[in-house]
Amino acid sequence: MMPINEKQYMNPYLAGVLLGLVLLATIVITGRGLGASGAMKSAVVAVVENVAPSHTENAPFYVDYAQGHDHPLKSWLFFEVIGVLIGGFLSGMVSNRLRFSTNRGPNLSIAKRLPFAVVGGVLFGIGAQLARGCTSGAALSGMAVLSAGGFLTMIAIFGSGYMFAWFFRRLWR
Amino acid sequence: MGPYLPELISPELNLVIALFLGIAFGFVLEQAGFSDSRRLAGLFYGYDFVVLRVFFTAAVTAMVGISLLAYFGLINLEMIYVNPLFTRSAIVGGVVMGLGFVLGGFCPGTSICAAAIGRIDAIFFVLGTLLGVFVYTEIYPFLSDFVVADAQGGVLAQNVFGLTRGLFILMVATMALIAFFVTKWIENRVNNRQAIAPLFAPRPAAIAISALALITLVVFLPDKKTQARSLINNDAELTEVADIRSIELEQLVIRLLDRDNSLILVDVRSRELFDTGHLPTAVNIPLDKLTASEWSSFLNRQDKQYVFYAGLDDSAKKAVLMMSRLNNTSNQMAFEGGYSEYIERFYGDSLENKAFARFRAHAVPELEKIAVEAEKVVVKPENKLKVQGGC
């Protein structure tokens, strides 16, 4: 069931203005920006708390986390990310892009693409915790409120990306 | 004045709002093509710069939007969450993420949006991210000192460069526009494409110039507080404003004697002068503190009438003008005679006329009683709840 009329992507500048307006609305209403990796943290904490409660009572990370947070899933970012899933799905539906597929470079097999995706995710998971946010929460939202930390994280992500890109060009070119 | 959290929105409603803002976020990300890892990675190889275009347009739109809303007093710049700066962990974390981006082709937000439409590589990336967070929680004891080291708080980027907010935004916007043109050129070269239109074709150039002009107009507008505060040192503007609502001493005293609860009397002199003597029930908020966030709700209640007074100068009139501009309200009045008139007429040697002498003889002991009662009620500035943010 290959959809025939997969719609074109939106003009990037128009999409940028719309994304900026969503971010602006978020800041005006809640005083904070958008994010993503924080929700991943909530999910991990919630799972570990349920699977190994004794572990969370002693491990320093969970002790620190419990001091500053309510129930991990009752968090703003977790609900926001559930929204991202719904919003992405709705967009895919109206543009006929809902189907299982894998994007990869022309010279890479799916069997090789997937392990790299996992490793990339692992690194992003660790890096976002170190930098207190990912591309959305630290870089984009941080830049919008003119946070020096946001700009620095953005430069570090994209600057280092260019340095690593040459070594992994076979993945994408 | 925004942000409306945490004071006007309940925690439960806030989560519903989070869901809807997330839907909008996910929808736009997917429409922009951020659900395709090959397009995202194109940023690093020059064959597709969609990430840069969307990302910088969004950031600049939000920055400029914040300036515009602050001009109209719809958002309080001091209340926005500014991501704190931890130089070393930001750089190390950023580099780890940069490697993750090149290997994985996603970042967390885009991977969730791509997983939503069935991209299998995105689903694997999401699982990897969860695993990465778990790994981090386990190695946290070894990293915790590094992560919290070098805490510098919510440093603003313009302060690092010693620029004003407006100038800094204009600089970022200009750099973004230059980057848009340069990357278009690179993209055409990498893809062996003849530019469909020359780089500086009239249409994109016109759009870029108008965008920059619009941004320039907006970012130098002062925010509402700066507008209000500009009156503190500006006597010229005061003489231009014809009618500043004022109240006479007799009227004021009658309302005090009536123990009129809707009246809030504010002494805008310094703390020292206030402590040497002040009108009964007066609260001391020096002129330059009137716009401070911790007084904002006390000074902006619709069910109250505010009477400002000072000593001999124009501070009371300035206060009325400042507060009515800051809050777009008109429930302020100036008692222009101030503390000096009060002392002179109620405690001075001249009794003026018989009627006033009778009034004064009745009022003074009563006012002193009211003053004693009022001293028991201490009005304190409120500590604003901090806006939470970050990941």
Q: How do the SSEs of chain A run, as a string of H and E?
A: HHHHHHHHH
This entry's quaternary arrangement is heterodimer
Low-confidence stretches of chain B: none
- Output the structural class of chain B: mainly alpha
End-to-end C-alpha gap of chain B:
25 Å
Report the β-strand fraction of chain A as a percent range.
Answer: under 5%
Structural class of chain A: mainly alpha
Summarize the largest interface: chains and residue counts.
A-B, 125 and 133 residues
Q: What fraction strand of chain B? A: under 5%
Compute the number of structural domains of chain B. Answer: 2
Kindly describe this structure.
The complex is a heterodimer of chains A (173) and B (391). With 173 residues, chain A is mainly alpha-helical. Chain A has two domains: 12-100, no CATH class; 103-173. Chain A has helices spanning 12-30, 37-51, 53-58, 60-68, 76-94, 110-130, 135-144, 148-165, 169-172. The radius of gyration of chain A is 19 Å and the shape is globular. The model of chain A has no long low-confidence stretch (mean pLDDT 92). Chain B is mainly alpha-helical and 391 residues long. Chain B folds into two domains: 11-223, no CATH class; 229-375, Oxidized Rhodanese, domain 1, CATH 3.40.250. Chain B has helices at residues 11-31, 37-45, 50-71, 87-104, 108-116, 120-148, 157-161, 165-190, 202-219, 224-229, 235-240, 249-257, 271-276, 315-327, 338-347, 354-376, and strands at residues 263-267, 283-284, 305-309, 332-335. A four-stranded parallel β-sheet of chain B has the order 2-1-3-4, with helices on both faces. In chain B, helix 1 (11-31) crosses helix 5 (108-116), helix 3 (50-71) runs antiparallel to helix 8 (165-190) and helix 5 packs antiparallel against helix 6. The longest helix of chain B is centred in the middle third of the chain and has 29 residues, at 120-148. Chain B is elongated, with a radius of gyration of 29 Å. The mean pLDDT of chain B is 91. At the A-B interface, helix 1, helix 2, helix 4, helix 5 and helix 6 of A face helix 1, helix 2, helix 3, helix 4 and helix 5 of B.
